[in-house]
Amino acid sequence: MDKKNLVIVLFLIFIVPLVVILVAYYSGSLRSSLDYKDKEKGLSAEISRHEKMIERKGASPENYLEAGKRVIKENIDGAKGWKLPDSTTYNPVDVGIYLLNKAVSLDPNSQEAHYWLGVAYQKHEGPMIENQIPYYPEYVELASEHFKTALEISPSYKGEINVLGPYSKLTSVWGSLALRYINEDKPDSVVWAFERGAQEGAFNKYQRQFARNLLNSCGGEAILFTNGDVDTYPLMYLQWVEGFRKDVRIANLSLLNTVWFIKHLKHRRGVDIALSDEEIEKLRPRREGGDIIRIQDIMMKHIIDNAEMVEIADSEYAYSPPIYFSITVAMDNKEEFKNFLSLEGLVFRLVATEGETQRNWGKLRENLFEVYDYDGLTDTTLTRYSSSVALQRNYAVIFMILANQQVEDGTLAEAILTLEYARNVLPYDSGRNTRLVDLYLDSSEEVEAEKTFAEAMEVDSANPYIYPAYGEIFIKHGMREKGMEILNKGHKLFPADNGNFITLEYYLHEYGPEEEYKRLLKEWIKLHPEDKDLYEPLLEREE
């Protein structure tokens, strides 16, 4: 073969394939394949590293569970340098998924392993950033399956949680998927996600009932600021699936940190936002003095500042549209406006007049006694839904606020009626019951006080906090023997609880017998020698 032909052959053998490979690589197909192999290689190496560590401890389901939890907690929402899906670096959550699947395979009845495997699938795609809502039906289905399994093992979850328990997680994952479809303007898919979630156990009737009452607290075309998943997604469920109060614009504070949601409120929900899309995209958190001003803080103030102030009566003004904060929004999220908020029930309404601790008593009474629906809240199955129980406690707080005001106004009988009504429509609440006993004794209704106290002892005797509360109430009303009996019982049942000890110590010091007081103090010092901050002042008092 001559030199020329040899060059051609070599070119065909080596150069052309190389060109084809390079073209394929840069066109994406081969690069994707190589990247995938790199990811698989990195993932396998990391899994192997964890397997070796677990083998040294023992390949038990508990050790796989703890290792899987550790990986997930380290990588949730990009806590340790999250890599976006197009990176050649493997997804670290996949390591946690592998380890937790091993835990489940070794112990299928491990409630905590199923719960954390659900968390791993929920968090697989990383944090919600800018216009990306990384929720996919296949991962939501997997997460939902394991949250459900955890609850099938036991309706009461006792393991470690990631922010929310399994019932609330069901609401969170399906609500987040619906949110993705809202962003993509796929209304049929939004409804499907909410309905499918309800079939899986999300958006339970207690959450929906709270959401219905929350929406009914708002005036027409209102803007309602909410806080998290459980006080937001059930509202959206009602609007999308039942068409209920679609006029209320829900402004979730966490979502107000994302570009897409701000645009959604502006373009699809008609919220008056005087920023161009380009300006919205450039929003960033900033530092003012020692404080971090989040995008949600910037947008909340912008929405409020942009609302119109209208005169509704002579020299009386109100925001248009009306603006509300759900009672579930933490005070530090509304600190700037706290003196312009008036409690009206499950909501604080933004008002034009400044004042501390404002209450619209007429509207509050109307909502509590005429507007809100409490059907089924006394159902004992409510205790399965930990987040729903937390939501319902808001009612008890509002009834207590009203009753305390009625006492202050000198209408003790009305205050008692208010708390009796609350007792009839709401689940048991220890704070409400202790206050009701106090009011019964104030009005010399000792029989009712005893009955209410007996109810507490029947359903809440495992709560260490009720003994000092009831003991002090009975002593305050001249029933010292009964009060001391309750305090002694509380200390006997919970000898390590300093609340019971301090209260009993105080009244023994006041009323004796002295030797019993000294015995109690010596006993506490012996059992808790490290607790000097508590007992040294008591010893100094004796000197």
Q: What can be said about the biggest beta sheet?
A: 6 strands, mixed
What is the count of DSSP helices, taking H or I runs of 4+ residues?
23
What characteristic shape results from the CA principal axes?
Answer: globular
Strand content: 5-15%
Low-confidence stretches: 18-36, 78-88
What oligomeric state best describes the polypeptide chains here? single chain
Percent range for helical residues? 55-70%
For the terminal residues, how far apart are their CA atoms?
115 Å
Tell me what the structure shows.
The chain is α/β, with parallel strands linked by helices and 543 residues long. The protein contains 23 helices and ten strands. It has a six-stranded mixed beta sheet with strand order 2-1-7-9-8-10, with no helix packed on it. A two-stranded antiparallel sheet has the order 3-4. It has a two-stranded antiparallel ribbon with strand order 5-6. It starts with a helix and ends with a helix. Mean pLDDT is 87; it is low at 18-36 and 78-88.
